Amino acid sequence: MTETVASAPERPTFTPAKPGDRLISLDAMRGFALLGILLMNITAFGHGLEPYFSPGTYDGWGELDKIFWGINKVFSDGTMRPVFACLFGAGIILMTSRMEEAGAGSRVADIHYRRMFWLMVFGLIDAYLLMWWGDILFMYGFSGLLLFLFRNVRPKRLAITALVLFGLMSAAMSIGPIFMHLQSDSMQEVVELKAAGEELTEEQTALSDRYESFKEGHSPESEKRVKELAANETGGGKLFSHNAKLSEQYVLHGPLGFGIIDGFWAMLLGMALYKWGVLSLQKSTRFYVSMLMIGYAVGFAIRIPFVLDAINSNFDAFAILNLWGIFNPSRALIAMGHLGLILTLIKMGLFTGLMNVLASVGKMAFTNYISHAVIGLVYFTFMGNFGKLAWHELYYVVGMIWLFNMVFSHLWLKPFRYGPLEWLWRSATYAEWQPLRRRAEATEG
């Protein structure tokens, strides 16, 4: 187990893919998804958990803020993660199949599981040391442990399994909204009775308490919101403890519930799409345009009315609940549109400069993803800007981070083969320092 691949000269040397072995379509889509994920994560960095899930807990809404919220809710909320997860699944097929074709044998499993182990370690560092409770690396690493078992499954079965898991998750997420709506009329009657000074029965009192708790949870006076603001205001150990509890709930315990299904279904689908040749541009331009048009047309048609209703109601609790009710069906369709968009542009040779920039960001996705958490921690927490920016001003920060990611990735990859954290991850996986500078690549023959 401790023997490195390179220590066996009589066998082929199995190392991470060289830059020339990569598919620009996968890297460009990965870069697009990574930058898109920041559009939603920035709200958690800058304003915290509660406004991210319940915008009614934020009390500084202006008209421009609502426009930015609406655009991002339609285009990017929950739609970038399936793209990212899809590419993660495809990457596993790409890496393991190439090693198997080269005769790696049982070492394929060894390398893969070491790779996933270190990804989980990096995820815990991100979650606890960088205090990013929204980390996905730990979940991806855990999912990767299971995905290896699916690598030889036929694409049709992978796709069916993915759709079944997606359906179960969507049904489970709809139970809460359906239950609340079944009680909404009764709740309204109780509110009117209470306002009129009528004496309530025990059952009506319980219903009234549930209604008030639900509404309060979506207001700036929310107990969770008050604690969140207090922790960030105090800082130090109290803030670290607050974020550690969130990381325990959303990161460490994520694989124990529906959290793992949230990404796992898309990873399985990505494996199927790669095997079908969809992600490697083996389909026709018409196919990719159809993905784009159908995904966006149907997905936006489902989501936009609910987003407008939420804005017009000033983020009423029931309007937000309605939005969560259609969250999964619309996110899957819009994610399909995202994939279709990038694949169409690459297939048609359009915006090649932009695609190359996105590919550079995608090649350094690990480094760039961690950079988001580092910048968020430094700027919003250490520099005291948490909760200080208007909602729309958060996206000025996004623009600066995007610019940094694109420029840094482009410049870094000129002399180096991998991003700094990609290199560290590969070196840990293979238990030896991997060549980093491109000149080292030329001397390998």
Structure description:
This protein is mostly helical and 445 residues long. The chain has helices spanning 24-47, 49-53, 63-75, 80-101, 107-129, 137-147, 155-195, 202-216, 223-234, 236-252, 258-275, 285-312, 317-325, 327-347, 352-363, 365-382, 394-412, 420-430, 438-442. The protein has one domain. The chain is 73% helix and 0% strand. The protein contains 19 helices and no strands. Residues 1-17 and 440-445 have low confidence and may be disordered. Helix 12 packs antiparallel against helix 14.
- The arrangement of helices and strands along the chain is HHHHHHHHHHHHHHHHHHH
Separate helix tally: 19
Content of β-strand: under 5%
Which spans of ≥5 residues are poorly predicted at pLDDT below 50? 1-17, 440-445
C-alpha end-to-end distance = 27 Å
- Total individual domains: 1
Secondary structure tally: strands? 0
- Radius of gyration using CA atoms only: 23 Å
Q: Structural class per helix/strand content? A: mainly alpha
Mean pLDDT: 89
Measured as a percent range, the helix fraction is: over 70%
- Describe the biggest sheet? none
Quaternary state of this entry equals single chain
Shape: globular
